């Protein structure tokens, strides 16, 4: 179980770094789709890693919203992480993406908040 959680955290870190690299490119070179998808996958993997580490069973297809709710059940402090700007949180991860830079940036910020929180509580 610990190995599987570490694999999710490793993949999440990789995706967050890819999103970060893309986000900080000059605006004329920015690929919002890349930031969006990498941020989504980072969020999903961070949440799955946390849940697996805490012995929570995952369903085959979980939305970010479902994963977040399960995380809140394990640790109430997850409520402090703001996902309101993420319009796809109730959809399957591969089904939607955002192109607006404000929404894409909010998605990246949420992934970064989760990473920061998991490091703070030494889950990673």
Distance between the termini: 14 Å
CATH class: Mainly Alpha
Total helical elements:
4
User: How many domain regions?
Assistant: 1
What is the CATH homology-level superfamily? Answer: Nucleotidyltransferases  domain 2
Describe the oligomeric state of these chains in a short phrase.
single chain
Mean pLDDT over the residues: 89
- CATH fold field value: Four Helix Bundle (Hemerythrin (Met), subunit A)
Strand content is under 5%
Radius of gyration using CA atoms only: 14 Å
| Number of β-strand runs | 0
**Percent range for helical residues?**
55-70%
Question: Mind summarizing the main beta sheet?
Answer: none
Poorly predicted parts: none
What CATH architecture label applies?
Up-down Bundle
Q: Explain this structure to me?
A:
The chain has 124 residues and is mostly helical. It has a single domain (1-121), classed as Four Helix Bundle (Hemerythrin (Met), subunit A) (Up-down Bundle), CATH 1.20.120.330. It has four helices and no strands. It has helices at residues 2-23, 32-53, 64-74, 101-120.
Report a brief summary of the structure.
The chain has helices at 2-23, 32-53, 64-74, 101-120. The protein is an all-alpha fold and 124 residues long.
Write a concise keyword list for the protein shown above.
124 residues, mainly alpha, Four Helix Bundle (Hemerythrin (Met), subunit A), 4 helices, 60% helix, 0% strand, globular
Topology:
Blueprint: H1 2-23, H2 32-53, H3 64-74, H4 101-120
